[in-house]
């Protein structure tokens, strides 16, 4: 992967919003890293900030997602 990962963050540190089905985490630029639960089910583990070029890697097991899917 040629992109630079800003940090590695545990899934428990992200905020999950069942309405948008997004995991979010504060970005240093003032916006929030975000990734959808469905992208994570497909194996994606990189959350991006829509306002800057930073990305963060989410540390999780696929089995962790069921807890959040139950909230939808």
Automatic annotation (TrEMBL):
InterPro entries: DPH3/4-like, DPH_MB_dom, DPH_MB_sf
Provenance organism: Pichia kudriavzevii
Catalyzed chemical reaction(s): 2 [3Fe-4S](0)-[protein] + 2 Fe(2+)-[Dph3] + NADH = 2 [4Fe-4S](1+)-[protein] + 2 [Dph3] + NAD(+) + H(+); [3Fe-4S](1+)-[protein] + Fe(2+)-[Dph3] = [3Fe-4S](0)-[protein] + Fe(3+)-[Dph3]
Top-level taxon of origin: Eukaryota
Keywords of this entry: Iron, Metal-binding
Any one Gene Ontology molecular-function term assigned to this protein's record: metal ion binding
Gene Ontology biological-process annotations: protein histidyl modification to diphthamide
UniProt xrefs under Gene3D superfamilies: DPH Zinc finger
The family this protein is said to belong to: Belongs to the DPH3 family.
Protein name per Swiss-Prot or TrEMBL: Diphthamide biosynthesis protein 3
Pathway: Protein modification; peptidyl-diphthamide biosynthesis
Keyword Cell division: no
Key word Iron present: yes
DPH-type MB domain span: 5-61
């Amino acid at each position: 992967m040629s992109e630079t990962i800003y940090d590695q963050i545990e899934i428990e540190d992200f905020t999950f919003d069942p309405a948008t089905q997004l995991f979010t985490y504060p970005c240093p630029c003032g916006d929030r890293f975000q990734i959808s639960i469905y992208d994570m089910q497909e194996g994606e583990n990189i959350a991006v900030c829509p306002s800057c070029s930073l990305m963060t890697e989410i540390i999780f097991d696929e089995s962790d997602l069921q807890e959040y899917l139950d909230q939808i």
